Amino acid sequence: MKITMLGTGAALPDPDRGQSAILISLDSGKHYLFDCGEGATRQMVRANVNPADVGVVFLTHLHHDHIGDFPYFVISSWMMNRKGSPVLLGPRGTRNFARHLFEDGAFHTDFAARSAYPLRQANIEAVRPDVREISPGMVYQDDEVKIHALHVDHIPEHICECFGVRFEAEGKVVAFSGDTKPCDAMVELARDADLMIHECTFPESFIAHRAKTGVGIYAHTSPTELGVIAARAGAKSVVATHFGHFDSTSPVLKRAAGHHLPVDLMGPHLMDEVAADIRKNYHGPLRLAHDLMRIDL
């Protein structure tokens, strides 16, 4: 099993990180995509994976930085001769999201133009996702994998459900948090996992700043809290991801984030602080994610 961190950033356009996307590739050649933020499709190609070969996409929630590349993924897969419909798993609202994209939605003109050609007509199902809105529990199973999902705690559920997942295949377990503040569901999903991939959007001081100023969502997991979750779950190894630009040196990002983050504290040096805070409670193998990081299990 190979895990490729296609995108490891958060909501703003970041010159060094794409948005949330994780690709799990099995030895059999099957591929499963978890989140599809900006850049995911291009990063697949950089990782030597044809988007048309990715059969299942799981959206943890419907924030733009987790779904923004999905139309490009579908249309690109169609143009690269996908056979059949991609399976799309996601929370309540996913069907509405997908319905407003292609034949009757935002990309209707593109669809109408391309579908006029016999080659695109021959694989028209590729641009008609098989959408399955999920509930907590077993959400997908085939002859090689099982995927369980539970609600995590990120934004109010009446706005959008948010899910963490447990992926089981080839005798291995990978857990992924999506976006969440600390919650017991992630401890359960990551119990004895071979790999726990968990959001770590902001250092402690940045979460405190956002909570104090009320400028945006601060329901995220701090590095210290991440270490506690990993230790409680007994995770065998941990990847921290979904970094909220706090390590960036981009002048554009710093100007744009002035009302959202304590930009005078931003910089790569904070990654050392993040690792040290995780290590306060978790002492197993730890990686801080970067785009196109590859992990073999």
TrEMBL record:
<dbReference type="GO" id="GO:0008270">
    <property type="term" value="F:zinc ion binding"/>
</dbReference>
<dbReference type="GO" id="GO:0042781">
    <property type="term" value="F:3'-tRNA processing endoribonuclease activity"/>
</dbReference>
<comment type="similarity">
    <text>Belongs to the RNase Z family.</text>
</comment>
<feature type="binding site">
    <location>
        <position position="242"/>
    </location>
    <ligand>
        <name>Zn(2+) 2</name>
    </ligand>
</feature>
<protein>
    <recommendedName>
        <fullName>Ribonuclease Z</fullName>
        <ecNumber>3.1.26.11</ecNumber>
    </recommendedName>
</protein>
<feature type="binding site">
    <location>
        <position position="65"/>
    </location>
    <ligand>
        <name>Zn(2+) 2</name>
    </ligand>
</feature>
<feature type="active site" description="Proton acceptor">
    <location>
        <position position="65"/>
    </location>
</feature>
<keyword id="KW-0378">Hydrolase</keyword>
<comment type="subunit">
    <text>Homodimer.</text>
</comment>
<comment type="function">
    <text>Zinc phosphodiesterase, which displays some tRNA 3'-processing endonuclease activity. Probably involved in tRNA maturation, by removing a 3'-trailer from precursor tRNA.</text>
</comment>
<feature type="binding site">
    <location>
        <position position="179"/>
    </location>
    <ligand>
        <name>Zn(2+) 2</name>
    </ligand>
</feature>
<keyword id="KW-0819">tRNA processing</keyword>
<dbReference type="InterPro" id="IPR013471">
    <property type="entry name" value="RNase_Z/BN"/>
</dbReference>
<feature type="binding site">
    <location>
        <position position="61"/>
    </location>
    <ligand>
        <name>Zn(2+) 1</name>
    </ligand>
</feature>
<dbReference type="InterPro" id="IPR036866">
    <property type="entry name" value="RibonucZ/Hydroxyglut_hydro"/>
</dbReference>
<feature type="binding site">
    <location>
        <position position="66"/>
    </location>
    <ligand>
        <name>Zn(2+) 2</name>
    </ligand>
</feature>
<feature type="binding site">
    <location>
        <position position="63"/>
    </location>
    <ligand>
        <name>Zn(2+) 1</name>
    </ligand>
</feature>
<feature type="binding site">
    <location>
        <position position="179"/>
    </location>
    <ligand>
        <name>Zn(2+) 1</name>
    </ligand>
</feature>
<keyword id="KW-0540">Nuclease</keyword>
<keyword id="KW-0255">Endonuclease</keyword>
<dbReference type="InterPro" id="IPR001279">
    <property type="entry name" value="Metallo-B-lactamas"/>
</dbReference>
<dbReference type="Pfam" id="PF23023">
    <property type="entry name" value="Anti-Pycsar_Apyc1"/>
</dbReference>
<keyword id="KW-0479">Metal-binding</keyword>
<feature type="binding site">
    <location>
        <position position="108"/>
    </location>
    <ligand>
        <name>Zn(2+) 1</name>
    </ligand>
</feature>
<keyword id="KW-0862">Zinc</keyword>
<feature type="domain" description="Metallo-beta-lactamase">
    <location>
        <begin position="18"/>
        <end position="209"/>
    </location>
</feature>
